[in-house]
Amino acid sequence: MRNNVMFLVIAVSLFLLMDLYIFSGVKPLTAPLQPNTRKIIHTIYWFFTAWSMVVLLIMFLGLSNSLPIWFRTVAMGLIMVLFLTKLVFIVFLLADDVQRLIQWIYGAVQNTIHDKPASADNSISRSDFLLKAGLAVSAIPFLGMTYGIVVGAHDYTVRRTKLVLKNLPKAWDGLKIVQLSDIHAGSFYNKTAVERGIKMVMDQKPDVIFFTGDLVNNKAEEMADYKELFSTLKAPLGVYSTLGNHDYGDYAAWDSLADKQQNLNDIISTHKEMGWDILMNEHRILKKEGAEIAIIGIENWGAKGHFPKYGKLKEAYAGTEHVPVKLLLSHDPSHWDAEVRTRYKDIDLMFAGHTHGMQFGIEKGPIKWSPVQWMYDQWGGLYQKGEQY
């Protein structure tokens, strides 16, 4: 407990120091404004600083459970937006301070060489250009991520892709699959919009539905208000699902390992109660007119960073060797290059999620960019290497 308190004190102190430093750049920008306007802007600035500290304190003390899940998610999202925006602005402040330091050193050296007395006021004002440039550039992540939280969270789109699998039996020609991923139910704040999204799925009249993990942000309770709604997802061949890294509760604080395990059990039960066939390192073989295809599903397996490797593809794959077409559900796309393509070349198609564009990016016409592409080679859309997708 003592270590946790120390961590909180250090974290709050660093946040305050960062905000004080940023405020040294805000003041010159607001100086030309009317006093009342300037006062309002400064008050808003420090209000959000105080608000962020209060929210973090509530989270730290474990008092957030009494708050609506959507409020917790939006609050933490806003804190993250503010933090990243400030980080961008700090880059310009640091560049300005380096420039000012160089100017000061140069001036001091010149005074020494020419034996001139130091000026009573030898301070160097901040660069108006760098401050305004910093404000403009930092507005990009602020506006983009705020839009993502407010609008993008429920801005659903249907993307259609036609595939030709060389080994697909003729009986399965025309199979229509709808894939969903990363529901993150704790982020929902508009149930009507979610209903619209589910209707969009059913309007596709899919033969089968795949869900590739991250049903929740952390806890099974996030699905309480949405379980009945997602139970309406139906397809003639069934709904098949698997787990993502967020479903294990690894990013939440638990009173005991037993509580954490119970949460995972509840999430698995939620899949089943909704009528979804959750694949925990196992497979299903579907038959049509005597022709077979295999659906393989594994638990989360990530090759990047600290993401867990609970998946056991060898175990799930066993028994499908004879099936001509194999479809894999694996949450993390890094699994494709790390294991699927190297060891299981007869897995025709892998369905993944996980990255969701790092919650920030641009996809308009031919333009497709997100910072997540610096971490993942496969992060959005269809990818092909050889005869594997």
Task: Give a verbal description of the structure.
- By secondary structure, the protein is α/β, with parallel strands linked by helices.
- The protein contains 9 helices and 10 strands.
- The strands form 3 sheets. A 4-stranded parallel β-sheet has the order 1-2-3-4, covered by helices on one side. The protein has a 4-stranded mixed β-sheet with strand order 5-6-7-8.
- Helix 8 links the parallel strand 6 and strand 7.
- It is elongated, with a radius of gyration of 26 Å.
Give me some keywords for this one.
389 residues; elongated; four-stranded mixed beta sheet; 2 domains; single chain; four-stranded parallel beta sheet; alpha/beta; 10 strands; 44% helix; Purple Acid Phosphatase, chain A, domain 2
- The SS-based structural class is alpha/beta
The tally of structural domains comes to: 2
Give the percentage of residues in beta strands: 5-15%
Radius of gyration: 26 Å
Strand order of the largest sheet: 1-2-3-4
If classified by CATH, what would the architecture of the largest domain be?
Answer: 4-Layer Sandwich
How is the main sheet built? 4 strands, parallel
Order of SSEs:
HHHHEHEHEHEEEHEHEEE
Q: What fold name goes in the CATH topology slot of the largest domain? A: Purple Acid Phosphatase, chain A, domain 2
Oligomer: single chain
Runs with pLDDT <50, length 5+?
none
Can you give the mean pLDDT?
87
Question: Residue share in helices?
Answer: 40-55%
Count of helix runs: 9
The dominant shape is elongated
* Name of the CATH class of the largest domain: Alpha Beta
